[in-house]
Amino acid sequence: GESVGLHLPTLSVQEGDNSIINCAYSNSASDYFIWYKQESGKGPQFIIDIRSNMDKRQGQRVTVLLNKTVKHLSLQIAATQPGDSAVYFCAENTGANSKLTFGKGITLSVRP
Amino acid sequence: GAVVSQHPSWVICKSGTSVKIECRSLDFQATTMFWYRQFPKQSLMLMATSNEGSKATYEQGVEKDKFLINHASLTLSTLTVTSAHPEDSSFYICSASYGWVTDTQYFGPGTRLTVL
User: Fold this and answer.
1) Are residues A45 and B34, on separate chains, in Cβ contact within 8 Å?
2) How far apart are CA A34 and CA A100, in angstroms?
3) What proportion of chain A, given as a percentage, has pLDDT over 70?
4) A41 touches chain B (CB under 8 A)
């Protein structure tokens, strides 16, 4: 069936380095993508989103890239900080039935 | 803006009892609310989608008589876990959107349910 998946279960980076978290999606009809950050014991927190008519969107220290050709989504975090340590989920929305499908999640660990 | 709260944040109950979880949008009117379930170290699984004043739409495999959802107003949705059993223990998270369902969902802090 259709699914959203992440390539790596964990990512460890040095404080101050840039982080790149990747996500593959399989539903070519998806037109809206979101990255969420979830800290332990808390609900997901919206980070950034992108619609399918764009290939790049920037926020504060974060950038999302969308490659529709290979159905790949990535989240780049600049100058990673200890507070960025969390589980990151990508999610897709097809727009048709309007539900979010979440990827499996990747744990980002920032080394001081 | 776009703050969603949940109450309680955690609850422990005996097997066979029912538990109600509230989800509120604090600073916006939520036309659509969603309920998710999350097991440890796993992703979020959508349980149901609810629109104010209408019946909830449940995902395949989710028992609607087990998980009762009421979306009585544009700022409040409730999830009642009826006759809870230990296997219902989980992290329940709601989200809300203030546009069409395709708009961004804002999540509550979650409710940890433990059934003894």
Assistant:
1) no
2) 9
3) 89
4) yes
Question: Could you list the pLDDT tens digit for every one of the 112 residues in chain A?
Answer: 334 554 448 999 999 999 999 999 888 888 899 999 999 999 999 999 999 999 999 999 999 999 999 999 999 999 999 999 999 999 998 765 567 889 889 999 999 9
Neighboring chain B residues of A46 at a CB cutoff of 8 Å: 2, 104-107
The C-alpha atoms of residue B71 and residue B53 are separated, in whole angstroms, by 6
Do residues B23 and B9 lie in contact, with contact meaning Cβ atoms separated by under 8 Å?
no
Q: What is the 3-state secondary structure (H, E, C) of chain A?
A: CCCEEECCCEEEEECCCCEEEEEEECCCCCCEEEEEEECCCCCCEEEEEEECCCCEEECCCEEEEEECCCCEEEEEECCCCHHHCEEEEEEEECCCCCCEEECCCEEEEEEC
A45 contacts in chain B (CB < 8 Å): 107
Token digits of residue B55: 């019946």
Which residues, in sequence order, are CB contacts of B54 under 8 Å at separation 6+? B71
B110: nearest CB among A42, A46, A100: A42
Contacts of B45 in chain A (CB under 8 A): 102
- Among the partner residues B49, B93, B104, nearest to A46 by beta-carbon distance: B104
